[in-house]
Amino acid sequence: MDSQPPANESSPSTALSNVGELVPFYSSYLWNRLASLLPTSNSIFLGKISNLYRQTVSRKRSISFPLPLPSEFPNSSTITSNVSADTARIHGVLEEIMADVLSNLHDIQKSLDFWRSRAEGSNARKAYFMIFERGPTAFVNESTKFVSKSLSEDSAMQHLCQSSSSHMTERMRVLVELRSALASFLAQLYVELDKRGEDLVKNPEKSLPSLLAVINGLFSNLEGSFSHLHAERECDSSVDGSYPMPLVFDRLPEVNEEGSQWTDCELTDAINLAHKNLEKLNSYLSVMVGKHRKPRRMTLYWVRYTCGAVGLSVFSIWLLRHSSLMGSSDIENWVHDAKEATMSFFSDHVEQPLLSIRDELFDTFRKRHKGVMETEEVQLTQDSLHRMLRNFCEQATREKVPDNASDQEMLEVVMNRYEKELVHPIHNLLSGELARGLLIQVQKLKLDIETAMLELDQILRANEINFAILAALPAFFLSIVMLTVLRTWLKKDSKAQGRGRIARIHRRLLVVEIEKRIMQYQSYIEQGRDKDAETVFGLLIYSLERLYRVVEKPARATDEWDLVKQDLIELGRPQQQTSYKLTVTQRLVTVYDCLLPTLKRQ
Known about the structure:
Layout: H1 12-37, H2 40-57, H3 82-119, H4 123-132, H5 136-152, H6 156-202, H7 204-231, H8 264-292, H9 297-300, H10 302-321, H11 330-364, H12 375-397, H13 407-421, H14 425-431, H15 434-491, H16 501-527, H17 530-557, H18 561-571, H19 578-590, H20 598-601
Helix pairs in contact: 1-8, 2-3, 3-6, 3-7, 3-8, 4-6, 6-7, 6-17, 7-8, 11-15, 12-13, 12-15, 13-15, 16-17, 16-19, 17-18, 18-19
InterPro entries: NCA2-like
Membrane topology: Multi-pass membrane protein
Keywords: Membrane, Mitochondrion, Transmembrane, Transmembrane helix
């Protein structure tokens, strides 16, 4: 029978893990003690090195939305004394906490939006997700279950849809609880900083320990919010693996805040404790969110990637068979044919049409008289007809025709005499004016034909430009497509961080989201639901940080950043009136050019 190890002994792996935890603890302890023994200037210098080391090693995320602290609150670049050095370190801790919490909220929100979109889909969409969008292993398992249930039962599709709904609901439930806890933590921290900002500047000796104690209490409250997640986990949970150990934060020792001031070592230990608790929070959330997050892109589209990989493999084998490595010259011939086809396309649809348009624009209209029918010939025919009409009218009426008489008036005289001559056509053809009238009409018909031919020649010459433009249309459309793709790439017109129409729409939707959360927060306050109002306020800060981050670059481009920044900060003030906040949201979407839709800008 195997002997049981003593209770006070541990396995080698446990001992190694304990050693791994003790090394950074004692390293930090020795570093803090060494720093406290050195002079003030050296302590400041070592503090800077410590901050730089922590920023380099730790997973620090940059924060965009400013903390609700006075502008004179010292940071790492404005260290002048021991007090300001400690204050600057606390400022760095607060920035790290805000940045990490906002980043985790963003990861949770993205996964939550994904699961909600899938849960709102049809049954066929849910079944497709369960089989084809969870990886090859899930594809094999779900396909096997579906086929077996189809053979044994009639409700295989219904069972698959129920399994999909349960799969999504469980993940949404955990993500919502994580989001609510983090949002409440963020709201409490933001409100405390807004309340204590002036005291932190005027009386930092008393305010800094109080603030650190409040932060320690907020971590303790967050620990309680996460504790029930493990108890509520279902036995038949679809989440792979087990949950991490329940989150347990370190706590500050009992300190008399109303008595003597904290020593430098106590402040340093409290700051390091806040860093350690933040690292624990990030580690816990990375595991919890990782187990309930949306599938990765490779997992979602593994079928497409697999088909693409198979197609690429087949294409590579086919390409290898026609390459020079296998003694074939097909690829060289295809490249040569493609080169010739490209050059032919460029010549037929780009070069020649452009040259033709240029020649037509500069030569055709300038040399239009050198055509099938010249203008001088038409003018000669017209002058000849005018003289014939004038002579006929003077002989027929025995009166001098006025110089300003038109051809139409004289032609009427000719036609009247022509009608009289037709009464005795044979006699008048030999001795009258009938033959002369016929010749004048022939001359008139010749003039009409020449005029029509001249106009037709001009129309044909003008249409040569149209034909050249028509030949250039394929190249023109191809250029438009390429320019559109290039414009989209340059503007990065996607989501909320671009400069195009789609980015503007996303930024305006963020303003709408902020407005809805302001109204929801006020509604919960009026109903006395303080806990829900606290959660909504944390989500409001998260939405403001997202808009703050994406609108900064376009607002700087339009020289509106200072005003936009101030309005966003006003929206985050806890004590600001709701009516004023709603006025600010309306101003954001109606005044600032960086948030206006494209049509209004035009």
